[in-house]
Amino acid sequence: VKQLEAGSRAGEGAPAALATSGASSVPGQQQQTLLPDDVIVNAVSGTVTVPANGSAASTAGGVTLVASDPTLRARFGGAGSANQFVFINVTNPGTLANLAGDTVTILALTMDTPALIQIDSTRAFVFHVGGVLQVNANQPEGYYEAEFDVTAQYL
To answer: pLDDT tens digit string along 44-91?
Structure first.
């Protein structure tokens, strides 16, 4: 049994990891973490799902979550004028990689809001990003990371 820590960070200017880069127009420096928990892998591949809505992570196939580690979704926020519309796009980088070059496929990145939101009277908005990872059979141990872009287009 091997333990795999697949991690990621998201936010403009965040170091390495599954981080927002260049194209983000979400205001301010944001660094958030999307951690699909430590997982235990074996000779059967499987998936890990971290819901964007904050519900419990789940697995399928030959992957088991380590119960003592929290599962976290990435959190982003922005501001604008009341009643202004914002189109949010999250770009899936396709894979996470460790320092040895081993990879984990990102099957999907999900948001807990529709892509088009309307800013309320507080003039602020918050959304979360989750995802689904494909873990290979006998996946090598390690910390896997990548970058992803989050773009907020104000309309």
So the answer is: 999 999 899 988 888 999 888 877 666 778 888 899 999 999 999 998
Exposed/middle/buried for residue 18 (C-beta within 10 Å: 0-12, 13-18, 19+): buried
Contact 9, 17 (CB under 8 A): yes
pTM for the predicted model, two decimal places: 0.77
First to last CA, the chain: 50
Q: What are phi and psi of 9, to 5 degrees?
A: -125, 150
Q: Which long-range contacts (CB under 8 A, 24 or more apart) does 23-28 make?
A: 23/91, 23/149, 23/151, 24/149, 24/150, 24/151, 24/152, 25/151, 25/152, 25/153, 25/154, 26/76, 26/77, 26/78, 26/150, 26/151, 26/152, 27/78, 27/79, 27/152
